[in-house]
């Protein structure tokens, strides 16, 4: 499969600089920062969770950024939540936003493309845009494979992995994750029609971990 090509969005330097600015904005103006993929996608994910995930289950958000997806889940009654990001500024921002709301959400710094330990038996793993950023890194293929290995290691057998991407189609995601996960469902996202064909700007796919 052809790689996407390197971009500054795949570098830690870009995200460190961005979140340094966003922490300052939050402390000065109370601005929590950007909602990746927009509010409509977030609402669709939340509604899917309400119908398909038990509130007692453990949920891990990979590349949580400002933590707003977990904060929205907390508001919906999901309390066993953890967010990780390789950018310390993102974790600082997420902790400060959750702290202001007095929400008990765990946040830690973690590079999902490194050798990871300390996380296991997670029921549901979330990714909204992190795999996209990894796919734009300098050693994208190698980093994607490390990512998939770690996600699998974090999860319980038959656990759910929910990934939302604007760079990969549902078919491409299924192909890339087929060795460790099986397609379970998809979360409907806005579609467009062009030249008689229907497509989606964003793909949101639910996988189940394969039991070895």
Automatic annotation (TrEMBL):
Positions of the Methyltransferase domain: 57-189
Keyword annotations from UniProtKB, A to Z: Cytoplasm, Methyltransferase, S-adenosyl-L-methionine, Transferase
UniProt-annotated location(s): Cytoplasm
EC class (word): transferase
EC number: 2.1.1.-
Family annotation (InterPro entries): Efm4/METTL10 (IPR026635), Methyltranfer_dom (IPR025714), SAM-dependent_MTases_sf (IPR029063)
Pfam families (alphabetical): Methyltransf_31
Role of this protein: S-adenosyl-L-methionine-dependent protein-lysine N-methyltransferase that methylates elongation factor 1-alpha.
Family: Belongs to the class I-like SAM-binding methyltransferase superfamily. EFM4 family.
UniProt protein name: Protein-lysine N-methyltransferase LOC108556645
The organism's taxonomic lineage, starting at the top: Eukaryota, Metazoa, Ecdysozoa, Arthropoda, Hexapoda
Gene this chain is encoded by: LOC108556645
């Amino acid at each position: 499969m052809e790689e996407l090509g390197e971009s500054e969005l795949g570098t830690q330097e870009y995200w460190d600089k961005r979140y340094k600015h966003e922490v300052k904005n939050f402390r000065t103006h109370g601005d929590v920062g950007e909602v990746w993929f927009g509010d409509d996608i977030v609402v669709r994910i939340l509604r899917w969770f309400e119908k398909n995930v038990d509130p007692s289950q453990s949920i891990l958000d990979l590349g949580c950024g400002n933590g707003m997806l977990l904060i929205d889940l907390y508001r919906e009654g999901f309390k066993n939540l953890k967010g990780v990001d390789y950018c310390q500024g993102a974790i600082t921002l997420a902790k400060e936003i959750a702290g202001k709301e007095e929400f008990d959400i765990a946040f830690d710094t973690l590079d999902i493309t490194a050798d990871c330990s300390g996380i296991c038996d997670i029921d549901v793993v979330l990714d909204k845009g992190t795999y996209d950023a990894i796919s734009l890194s300098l050693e994208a293929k190698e980093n994607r494979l490390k990512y998939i290995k770690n996600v699998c290691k974090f999860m319980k057998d038959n656990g759910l992995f929910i990934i939302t991407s604007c760079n990969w189609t549902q078919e491409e995601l299924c192909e890339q994750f087929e060795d460790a996960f099986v397609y379970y469902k998809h979360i409907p996202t806005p579609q467009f029609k062009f030249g008689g064909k229907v497509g989606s700007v964003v793909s949101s796919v639910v996988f189940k971990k394969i039991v070895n």
